[in-house]
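Collaborator request log, item 7. Partner lab (contact: R.S.) asked for a structural prediction of Small conductance calcium-activated potassium channel protein 1-like to inform their binding assays.
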Amino acid sequence: MSELHAQHEELEARLAALESRLDALGTSLQALPSLIAQAIRPPPPPLPPRPGPGPLDQAARSPPCQWPPVAASDCG
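Returned to partner:
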């Protein structure tokens, strides 16, 4: 009797595994039409080029500051 019970448990486990795989297969099949539609749909047009930098602010347009040269006699 115990061997029959062990076989029953093994069959139950195998049946549960098969049911799980069948559920996964069903989910994949449900997703298949939308995946096919995505595959055959033409790709979207390329994005337009990004606009260049806008007008520069006043600090960026002004010439760089120039410090007068330092002589050794200025330091001490």
